[in-house]
Amino acid sequence: MRLDKFLKVSRIIKRRTVAKEIADKGRITVDGKTAKSSTDIAVGNKLVISFGNKTLSVRVTSLKETVKKDEATQLYEIIAEDFKENFK
Description:
Structural class: alpha+beta
Number of helices: 2
Number of strands: 5
CATH topology: Structural Genomics Hypothetical 15.5 Kd Protein In mrcA-pckA Intergenic Region, Chain A
Largest sheet: 5 strands, antiparallel
CATH architecture: Roll
């Protein structure tokens, strides 16, 4: 499954176009390597996603084409969630 589709189906990122944009800017790594939106994802991969002030690390536990909203969290396991504080 493509990275951008997985992020949308799992609801880590709500829209596929936004997931594609973030991936193509180099803000997502898969098993330590910078990933593009077309990168294939497999069960067991570790994803690190850098949002504005947050970094989310997850492990892929399942791949499905579609899931209901309440089942989306079963597709991944959160490893770490780091917040950067901005002091200005």
